[in-house]
Amino acid sequence: MTAPTERVSRPLIGIATYRRPELLAALLRSLGRSVGTARPRIVVVDNDPAGSAAGVAPAAGYPHEYHHEPAPGIAAARNRVLSLLHDDEDAVIFVDDDEVVDPGWYTALVDASRGADVVSGPVVARYGPGLPRWVVRGRFFDRDRQASGTPTRHPATNNVLVRVAALRRLRGEWFREDFSSTGGSDTELFDRLRRDGARLVWCDDAVVREDVPASRATARWLWRRNVRLGNVTSRVRLAGTPRPLRVLLGAGRMGAGTVLSALDLVRRGHLTRVRATHVPKGWGMVQAALGVHVEEYRR
After folding, report:
1. CA-wise closest residue to 236 among 198, 278, 284, 280
2. Which residues of the chain are modeled with pLDDT < 70?
3. Which of 38, 113, 218, 240 has the most CB atoms around it within 10 Å of its CB?
4. Residue 278, C-beta contacts closer than 8 angstroms, at least 6 positions apart
5. What gap in Å lies between CA 9 and CA 65, rounded to an integer?
6. Contact status, residue 210 vs residue 126, Cβ threshold 8 Å
7. Of the candidates 211, 155, 160, 209, the residue with the CA atom closest to the CA atom of residue 33
């Protein structure tokens, strides 16, 4: 696949939402500040059966399109966004409904599309007051960042631009709905694009921000989320690997995480995300090898 040389000119911004009308309004306000006079088309796909996002005002400063997707699951909502692309739109930008974008986000993301099929950027966690000290010290909601222009390691639909030309090569097989209840349909789609020869790059200046809710700042929530991440990673990237090896890799990751976490406790006095999460992720990999899928989003 030959990498495109031109900057995308007519992107669509797509937002899949589920029962977060207040957060959606905040996202739309930030989008309006970021896009400025460019004013790309914004579509909101509401996956709530009750249509809770229908009454959200056009907070971006210009109207957005509202669409209701009754089929449950994030994959169905994302696919609905793609089905709404116009013939003259050359890219789709996905952001999550619980984020806000920085003022320079839109320009940075679009400018980085020169020479790339997929551009992703950082999601920066904002730790508010009242969160457990161990969560903040360990930076458990931080995400990895990298230098702009380098190949993206883990693209996701929380902050990404995808060229329509790259999506067309998938021949309508977009986000797989068998990942709807487990999450990871975006991981699987980007893995297919990478194997197809698409160029996936990082733009560290295209920043979105996400508040850490107190309901998630618990050991139980973090354990389940990271088990699910390891589970999905194994399903997607180790699908052709023999089961015994997949179990061994998962168990090895759990062992390494245990040792590294013990070292953190001795040297730092607290656990850290980059080391402690190897344990639940390894367990998720073992479960996937045994045919168990972690359904975090099951309704």
Report:
1. 284
2. 1, 3
3. 113
4. 253, 254, 256, 257, 260, 261
5. 20
6. yes
7. 209
Q: Which residue has the tokens 């990942």?
A: 179
Summarize pLDDT for 66-85 with one digit per residue, the tens: 999 999 999 999 999 999 99
Distance set, CA 19 to CA 24, 50, 91 (Å): 9, 9, 26
Handedness of CA 50, 189, 156, 84 (dihedral sign): negative
In contact, 155 and 166? CB cutoff 8 Å = no
* 167 neighbors 213 (Cβ within 8 angstroms): no
Q: Which residue has the tokens 């097989």?
A: 173
Q: Looking at the DSSP assignment, which residues form a beta bridge with residue 11?
A: 91
Place of tokens 């139980």: 220
Residue the block writes with tokens 């052709």: 240
Closest CA to 269 of 128, 138, 142: 138
Residue 269: both structure tokens together: 């006095």
**How many CB atoms neighbour CB 40 within 10 A?**
19
Which tokens go with 292? 């168990």
Smallest CA-to-CA distance from 213 within 222, 202, 200 is with 222
Copy the structure tokens of residue 236.
């997607």
Which residue is it, tokens 């903040």? 136
Distance CA(133)–CA(7), nearest Å, equals 44
